[in-house]
Amino acid sequence: MTEQGSLGFSEAHLRGISATLGKVAQSLCDFEDYANGRAHRGPLFREINALSAGQKEVLQEEIREIRRLIAEIQAAFPLTPIDQAVHKIIWATCAVLREWVIELESRYMARYGPFDPSAAEFLDPRVKEIEARLRRISGAISRAGMED
Description:
- This protein is mainly alpha-helical.
- It folds into 2 domains: 74 residues, no CATH class; 61 residues.
- Strands 1-2 form a two-stranded antiparallel sheet.
- Strand 1 and strand 2 form a beta hairpin.
- It is elongated.
């Protein structure tokens, strides 16, 4: 790479710029979803999107401007975009979630103190099923990824 094309930045600098601005760009996608009214809901999880119309307008304008600035930087430097395959995101998330869920089994929950054995009889099979279903999602996603 020439000194001219990188304006004096090394490959390491450019990787850092790409990684940081790639994460900013990724977050802007989420912000844009919120500005468009996104509010996911599920058992034990709720996004509460109470953004006003004015806040949504400001958010959308700032997203446009930040994207413009990122595009200017990208045009000035040979930056590599971050490509994230959805199946890999799902697989990795499931791997982490499975570890967390396993920690809900009664043998691990005992670290918080004693509990009624009937609680373990109720919770353990459900926790094992959640973990197994997350494993099945990972397996299905892994197979889908191999078909790309």
